[in-house]
Amino acid sequence: MNRLWDLDMLRGLMLILMFVTHLPTRFSSMLSQPFGFVSAAEGFVMLSAFMAGMVYAGKGLRDGIPAMRNAFIARALKIYACHAALLLFLFSVMATVGLLRDQRALTDLLGFYLNNPLAGLWGGLLLIYNPPLLDILPLYIMFMLLSPLILEIGLRRGWQGIFAVSIALWVMAQTRISETLYDVFVILTDFQVPYRETGSFETYAWQFLWVLGLWMGAKMAKGELKDRKPFPKALIAVCLLYAAVMLIWRYVAGQVPIQGDSMINHLFDKWHLGPFRLLNFFAMVILIMHFGDAIKARLPRIGALETMGAASLPVFCAHLVVVLLVLSIYGGSTPERGIMVDVMLMAGGLAILYVVAVITLMIDKESNPKRRSGTPGSEGTGAAASGAGASGVKVTKPLAQVGGQVRGDH
């Protein structure tokens, strides 16, 4: 079975966009949110969820729910190990370099840890304290741990109840409910990590994208996504218009829709997945699904993107290491820094990410010569096999034994 090269390319593109955004150069603001008021993070989270739903739902249908659950837990533990290693690298090597060089761009990022090292260390390992740049993997780990339950309910009982809860949580996230619940947690446990240090991503909001991706991936595993009805022409026209307006607005206004403290900005907020931002993302997803086959037929395959997308987890971790090193040596982006320095930092960083991907895939191939597909985001086998999406996966005895016949999605 072959890899889904188009999904690998998309993930590779998302990784590069995140790297460009995080690397402190003059290109960061220019290339961040290049398609409107939507960032690479939204695309990467939903793609990861889609891959997880497709691969693990297929495993559940073939081998049973317990096998699917164990695969999710094993993957979550692997991601946690990567996150813990990054935390220790940041708290030891990078913190030391930042202090010795008095590099404010890095020490400000570590402000809470430097003032409260013990609380910072344990809070980080417990996924509660999440310094800037290191707050995506904890989100991913929590979603991976919840995914077996979500997929099991979705496969056995349908998705209506799941989406009802998910949408309700997203609505709650647009208020201060998360902060209020955390305050109650602090009162009960006397935990020392402030709410502002728990990470930028609002978990109750971003879970909606994850659930949506899981649902689409599960439908792909069952062969149902290919059989969907075409989108109405009126919907495509509305999506084209909305996406075009958002794209123009983003490059006219900049990263923030309206300068100053405006309610409009909250409606586009990234961290809470504001409604207008979510609509922008949905418009793009619908357009990609509608024009996807035509684009794929004409799209040249870019090997570098495929390679990085196939090794997404190590490439993601490597991009954080590179960004932290640049912050410790060069600090934040400044107009005084020569443009050639920024160009070299960008080119050198991308080259490192590509080399990491190539080495990872080589190691994976040598250690698993017979493996051709695997779990989402794994070093050499992140994409699901195309056969599952094309022909579907039949319900087998193991699933029937744990919950009866699988019902169709609703």
From TrEMBL:
Keywords of this entry: Membrane, Transmembrane, Transmembrane helix
Composition-biased stretches (Low complexity): 374-392
This protein's record includes keyword Ribonucleoprotein: no
Top-rank taxon, per record: Bacteria
Transmembrane regions listed in the UniProt entry: 12-29, 35-58, 79-100, 120-146, 234-252, 272-292, 313-331, 343-363
Region (Disordered): 369-410
One Pfam family recorded for the sequence: OpgC_C
Name assigned to this protein: OpgC domain-containing protein
